[in-house]
Design brief:
The complex is a heterodimer of chains A (110) and B (612). Chain A is mostly helical and 110 residues long. Chain A contains four helices and no strands. The termini of chain A are far apart. Chain B is an all-alpha fold. Chain B has a two-stranded antiparallel ribbon with strand order 1-2. The longest helix of chain B has 55 residues, at 194-248. Chain B is elongated. The chains are: A mainly alpha (110), B mainly alpha (612).
Chain lengths: 110, 612
């Protein structure tokens, strides 16, 4: 699984759409390669279709991937990547806050 | 590192594919990635995969996912054999006497009708209802509608609240029942179908029985001839003697006007016998051959005489039979035995004929039954699907949860499960047996129990209290379980037992109730909700049912539930709505769409239901 799947430059909707395309590719390749049974592929597709339109924010995406990976292990890596990503975003936001805070302090000093 | 998504091969611009273009695109897409890529998949699964690939390449991800998610269409396994099988049902070309007969024109009409019907069924199950031409659609609609008018249970399934059956409802049923009919037809045309096997067996037996009758007839004819010949022997001997005496009469022999060939006719017959006997040993002897021709000539000439020719012919005939006649004269004493033998053969033939008649009657009944089944195939498949849903539903029913507190309670728990399994069924009538087996749901009994369950205790004019509600119903169950009044009173004092027992009985009853074609009315649901024990049972049932993974998957698969929203449903929705939703999703609610599954149908039913 490519850890750069989710391109940070895209809108959230585009990222979800890209992820759906990734699911389809994984399904097609898995069924073709025999690692996913067609019947399981059907279940996965149905699961994805039943939930994906309800994903409106990052935390919902993580919850969705968590549920998906719990049912089908092949999606565990996707879930892991997204968890790392949300942590990174959190860290970046924290750093940004720190910088903002420092700038503010600097301005105040100035 | 490059973005994996942007690396995916995509055409310069998305291709918009419509329904008619998809098969073409699929075919084209098979060039480079042929079906060998999908080894081990069924042809339908391969089609889905190819469609998904085409959609993927066209940038239509959602359509690709949907192509995979789509359910497997049932395959009509006996499509190519169904026509001869239908004809075989109507083939009755053997009459009661075992002889081949011309078919009744009415039977031919029926057969043609069945053939046409089968052709429509075949087209319907392979292509789907919407692909049929309007005339065929109209026939299926009118067929099902007509049958619903004469079948209260089917009417219960199809009618709206006012009792009317609209063409749109029938169309929805037919649209969603194609797989159901396929499944039904696969069962019907399966060579292992017991009735088809029985029919084939009868046909085989009929052919054998007809052959046996013919053989017995031939045997009887021979016996009759043997008896007749023995009986005729004295008469023939007398006639022969009289004719010989006439020819040997001195006046006859001295009569100069009579030809010598006639006067010597008896001797000539004897001489010819002698010559023929010698010729057996000397077949090429010229003298004997010449003598045979000479004597034969005299005999034939005498037979042609205007005055005595008739006597000569008769004499020659009797002469040729005299050996047999003499033997038969000696066999006169055998006649009683032979007559007995003949009677036995006659009796055998009568028995064989009776056996054939039985076989033909049985065949007629079997064929009639099969013909009727074929005629009712669509409605039967609707019921079959509903029954399958019911079985699936019943398999999900909760069992007792709590521990039994006493030996008595333990015994009763098993008994209650046993009783609830059969309490709401009754023997099927003749028509129902054709489509639903030996037992059917007893709507009246369920209604009675439902009324007891949802009513409050009543006091009659003499002041006696009639116990209703959960305890009232349980009391009746416990009586059926053979418990004494004291035992029942003791059991009913335990609230946990009452709650647990109702938790088992109610889901069964609820399932059976809606399967009889009855609507769960708002007031009925309110009555259930109003009673804390019943409400608890409903909620518990709904929660347990919906939390089972396969049921949940089914609901999600049908598109009725969103997996994510499940928790919200559980916390915000009361038991009544939850139950309704499950019933509708599983196709068990008695709306016009009952038993027919399908996302649109279930969704429409939920939206249109009068119970919210």
């Amino acid at each position: 699984m490519d850890p750069n799947l989710i391109n940070a430059g895209k809108t959230f909707e585009q990222r979800v759409s890209d992820m759906e395309a990734q699911f389809l590719r994984m399904l097609l390749e898995g069924i073709k390669g025999g690692t996913i049974k067609f019947e399981d592929g059907q279940k996965i597709a149905r699961f994805v279709l039943s939930r994906i339109d309800d994903i409106k924010n990052q935390s919902q995406l993580v919850v969705f991937l968590h549920d998906l990976s719990e049912k089908w292990e092949i999606f565990a890596q996707l879930y892991k990547v997204e968890t790392v990503r949300i942590t990174e975003i959190g860290t970046q936001e924290k750093k940004l806050d720190e910088i903002k805070s420092q700038l503010l302090q600097f301005n105040q000093i100035k | 590192m490059p973005d994996a998504i942007t690396e995916a091969p995509k055409p310069p611009a998305p291709i918009a594919l419509n329904a008619t273009e998809i098969p073409v695109a699929m075919k084209a897409g098979m060039g480079a990635q042929g079906p060998e890529l999908f080894r081990g998949l069924t042809s339908q699964q391969q089609e889905r995969m190819q469609a998904a690939l085409v959609f993927q390449e066209a940038g239509k991800t959602r359509a690709g996912m949907e192509a995979i998610a789509k359910g497997e269409k049932a395959e009509f396994k006996y499509g190519n054999n169904c026509q001869p099988a239908v004809e075989a049902i109507y083939l009755s070309d053997t009459g009661p006497d075992g002889k081949k007969i011309a078919r009744d024109p009415a039977e031919d009409t029926d057969k043609n009708d069945a053939t046409n019907r089968m052709a429509i069924y075949r087209e319907y199950v392979t292509q789907g209802f919407d692909k049929l031409d309007p005339a065929k659609q109209a026939r299926l609609i009118s067929d099902l509608k007509t049958k619903a008018l004469s079948n209260p249970e089917l009417r219960g399934l199809l009618a709206d609240d006012s009792g009317a059956i609209s063409d749109e409802v029938i169309k929805d049923v037919l649209r969603s029942n194609s797989d159901g009919l396929t499944e039904w037809l696969n069962g019907f045309f399966n060579p292992e179908n017991p009735q088809v096997k029985a029919l084939t067996e009868r046909d085989k037996n009929i052919r054998k029985q007809s052959g046996d009758i013919k053989a017995k007839e031939a045997e009887k004819k021979l016996k009759q001839k043997e008896i007749d010949d023995i009986k005729d022997a004295p008469k023939k001997a007398l006639e022969y003697d009289k004719l010989v005496a006439k020819f040997n009469e001195p006046t006859f022999q001295t009569n100069t006007t009579i030809d010598v060939g006639i006067k010597g006719f008896v001797n000539n017959l004897t001489e010819l016998d002698r010559v023929k006997a010698e010729l057996v040993n000397k077949p090429n002897n010229a003298d004997l051959l010449k003598r045979q021709a000479e004597v034969s000539g005299w005999i034939e000439k005498a037979k042609g005489d205007a005055t005595y020719g008739k006597d000569c012919i008769q004499l020659a005939e009797l002469h040729s039979q005299r050996e047999t006649t003499n033997k038969n004269l000696d066999r006169q004493g055998e006649l009683p035995t032979l007559e007995t033998d003949l009677q036995k053969l006659t009796n055998d033939e009568i028995n064989l004929q009776a056996g054939l008649n039985d076989l033909l009657r049985e065949r007629g009944l079997l064929a009639g039954d099969l013909q009727m089944q074929l005629e009712h195939a669509v409605e039967a498949s609707v019921f079959q699907k509903a029954a399958q849903n019911a079985v699936a539903m019943l398999n999900e029913l909760p069992k007792f949860k709590g521990e039994a507190k006493s030996q008595l309670e333990k015994e009763v728990r098993d008994k209650l499960l046993e009783i609830v399994g059969t309490r709401y069924t009754k023997p099927a009538n003749w028509w129902e047996r054709r489509t639903k087996g030996d037992t059917v749901l007893d709507g009246k009994k369920i209604s009675e129990d439902f009324k007891i369950l949802t009513s409050k205790d009543e006091v009659d004019s003499s002041g006696r209290v009639k116990e209703n509600g959960p305890k009232g119903l349980l009391r009746d169950y416990l009586k059926k379980a053979g418990k004494t009044s004291a035992e029942i009173d003791s059991l009913l004092q335990d609230p946990a037992f009452v709650k647990d027992s109702i938790g088992v009985i109610l889901p069964h009853m609820l399932t059976d109730y809606v399967l009889t074609g009855k609507h769960l009315t708002n007031s009925e649901m309110n009555a259930l909700q109003a009673n804390p024990i019943l409400k608890g049972a409903l909620d518990g049932f709904a929660t347990e049912l919906i939390n089972r993974r396969d049921v949940k998957d089914k609901l999600v698969g049908l598109g009725v539930l969103k997996e994510k929203g499940l928790g919200e449903y559980l916390t915000t929705m009361d038991g009544k709505k939850l139950i309704l939703m499950i019933l509708m999703a599983l196709g068990l609610l008695s709306t016009p769409f009952t038993g027919l599954g399908g996302v649109a149908v279930a969704g429409a039913a939920f939206g249109a239901s009068k119970i919210h």
